[in-house]
Amino acid sequence: MTPVRRSSVYRVSPDALPPDPFAGDPHDPALSLDVPDGEEPDALSEQERDEVVADLADLAVYQALLEGRGVRGIVVDCGDCGEQHFHEWSLLRASLQQLLEEGQMRPHEPAFDPDPANYVTWEYCRGYADAVLSDG
Known about the structure:
Blueprint: H1 46-66, E1 73-77, E2 84-88, H2 89-102, E3 119-120, H3 122-134
Parallel strand pairs: 1-3
Antiparallel strand pairs: 1-2
Organism: Pseudonocardia bannensis
Protein name: DUF5319 domain-containing protein
């Protein structure tokens, strides 16, 4: 029997996201990135939904283990722009929740002048959690 994975994910209200500064603006530069008129964005497959739910659960564990040690969030190397993106815990949680509910993430403002020493990679989080949770 496969063990049931209990979730410690807190539901994040869409209001937790910063407001879209271009809401309702017909000249919104992100409109060129949207799905063509009349088409709905592709819904997440069942496997993609499961992966996002698992990521949300993992994120809650990582935050619980690392936030008290001064880690503010996760850094991701962007394949599109080649730069690092710094995501605070709550913003990443809200973005993943939005992906789960809407099938896509809204653009958001990057972190202002983040200190890279305060952010770790997803792989670091996974390794840290594995080490801490296996001690015992």
